[in-house]
């Protein structure tokens, strides 16, 4: 039957974590398509209760191996907000620098290792080790650059060790910072080659406008700080996120779907580029041009292109940040700020590689966690991803079953879902016996 | 081990409940990873490749066993693999996953998922190493890279790997670090297995115990030593300054080294 198709992908490959993709087509009509998260729940919000604040930030970074700096900083910011701890300019610059490292490392992983094989018709990049060793080495070099940049600031990327409530446990030497600046400058050539490579790939032509939500900072392209804005033109302070973002179970599914004032929305690289493109650096804008990414862009496949644009931006801006740090010199007396432990509630909001991330903690008078809440980028994207799948699938329903399945897989991968992060998005039942 | 076979050993990576940071750490080996991969054929690695073979010799498993269906899956992997390696703290000692074992399952499910919680398949968390026999372990959160390379080489050459059995203090002293207790903080370095190059204490953190305890570590004595008579005076002073009770010190150990349910299988079959 040419008109019937059934897609059942158990544990989709080349995504972080475990998810299943299913679609049913009958008589040429799409009956159902969905991406189901089947990750084993890890109960972070429950196990953190009773833990002292320093253990909370230690454990919270373990929510995700890819975006450990984001989780660490979201947790640190939430605790600092609860205690009323102010951080100084030096700490702020260093944290922003660590973020840039994480963004590059995470995006490069997605670009080369997870997404590119689809475009090259390969099961993974591993066959390229022999066929195009230069490409694989370039990918690994860039990934390691981001990893090492985060490690230079945070002691280690996965998982950070030098970041503390109120500052840092360690400061880099100026020599190490200078050496990193040279490495960053030299990496622009690798990035240029990457832009050229991805410029030749044909991203599927699919557009569906949605709501784009991200942080925005008045002075720079926001990753570490800012207020929450949406493409609808509204803005709220990060600690009032719950006024706009709601997580609700939608029967008959047991998933928690996030909505922005009642509507599905997108977070991540494309949302950030759409909302804050005028703050991108000159080279990043050039890269956007070469990749055919013009704003506003409503094509979710272009998330991948937006990630590459951000990589260029992060490298450019990291060079600037290092220069600012070297100019003002690193001062040990500013390394660790005063921390006054006390009860309170705090929210930490950051832009993780996959989008805006919120940690919220309520602490008791000894700084122990009473309640915890995490709002994770991938959880926020799920409702929008399902809406995109429903809009995209009918357009490719005439294709062979294989190519239909591949098209849907590519759309899920474009979102770069990070399912391990999803501390509370798991749906109860996999459609598959394991 | 695989001397007689002409084909390259076939390697598979599997993940259970975890952050997948150990696999990513392995990817960060960069060119050294390519050198290692020349000696093997990777036949399953969901995070980076499509397609999976059931025919493998060496299985690296990261993550903890937290669902009934995981128990079956890891047993199947054990049956198929000639060599099984637990990769990282979740698979080797339980890591933070095991912290949930301190709470009633119903409370966990309701706290995180509300009414929808009742439908989840979840059991007390155990490391892979507590569910099936493992041949090699790589410790650390994330897995220590030099140890991963060491273990890999030992497997390829068919040798047993003996993990270091000294406390983190040994490596910390070699780094010339000021003792964490001198900084007024509680550190688990004195009873934690080294092999991490004391990375946490070198960068200003304390040791949280991610590489597991040294062999025959006497936890009770450590807690007593930290809180009562017979203690190292400096350590006791630090603990007194913070006003930690013995159970609070024990709770610190549990961040990575939550004691596992002796009942084992029992916990699995009646875990829900």
Q: Short summary of the structure?
A:
Chain A has 434 residues and is of the alpha+beta class. Chain A has helices spanning 44-47, 53-60, 68-83, 89-120, 128-131, 133-154, 174-199, 269-276, 282-290, 303-328, 377-392, 401-414, and strands spanning 5-9, 19-26, 29-37, 163-164, 167-168, 211-216, 227-230, 235-236, 245-249, 256-260, 265-266, 344-352, 355-363, 369-375.
Q: Helix content range of the residues of chain A, please?
A: 40-55%
CATH topology of chain A: Cytochrome-c3 Hydrogenase, chain B
Q: Mind telling me the CATH superfamily name of the largest domain in chain B?
A: NADH:ubiquinone oxidoreductase-like, 20kDa subunit
What is the count of structural domains of chain A?
1
Order of helices and strands of chain A: EEEHHHHHHEEHEEEEEEHHHEEEHH
Low-confidence stretches of chain A: 426-434
Q: Unreliable segments of chain B (pLDDT under 50, ≥5 consecutive)?
A: 263-272
Primary descriptors:
heterodimer; A: 434 residues; alpha+beta; Cytochrome-c3 Hydrogenase, chain B; 4-stranded mixed beta sheet; 43% helix; globular; B: Rossmann fold; 5-stranded parallel beta sheet; two-stranded antiparallel ribbon; disordered C terminus
How does this model look, in words?
The complex is a heterodimer of chains A (434) and B (272). With 434 residues, chain A is an alpha+beta fold. Chain A has a single domain, classed as Orthogonal Bundle (Cytochrome-c3 Hydrogenase, chain B). Chain A is built from twelve helices and 14 strands. Chain A has helices at 44-47, 53-60, 68-83, 89-120, 128-131, 133-154, 174-199, 269-276, 282-290, 303-328, 377-392, 401-414; strands at residues 5-9, 19-26, 29-37, 163-164, 167-168, 211-216, 227-230, 235-236, 245-249, 256-260, 265-266, 344-352, 355-363, 369-375. Chain A has a four-stranded mixed beta sheet with strand order 8-7-6-11. A three-stranded antiparallel beta sheet of chain A has the order 1-2-3. A three-stranded antiparallel beta sheet of chain A has the order 12-13-14. In chain A, β2 and β3 form a beta hairpin. In chain A, α3 packs antiparallel against α4 and α7 packs antiparallel against α10. In chain A, 58% of the residues are buried. Residues 426-434 of chain A have low confidence and may be disordered. Chain B is α/β, with parallel strands linked by helices and 272 residues long. Chain B folds into two domains: 10-163, NADH:ubiquinone oxidoreductase-like, 20kDa subunit (Rossmann fold); 168-257, no CATH class. Chain B is 38% helix and 10% strand. In chain B, the strands form two sheets. A five-stranded parallel beta sheet of chain B has the order 2-1-3-5-7, with helices on both faces. A two-stranded antiparallel sheet of chain B has the order 4-6. The longest helix of chain B is centred in the first third of the chain and has 13 residues, at 68-80. Chain B starts with 9 loop residues before the first strand and ends with a helix. The relative contact order of chain B is 0.13. The model of chain B is unreliable at 263-272 (pLDDT under 50). Classes of the chains: A alpha+beta (434), B alpha/beta (272). The interface between A and B is large, with 68 and 65 residues.
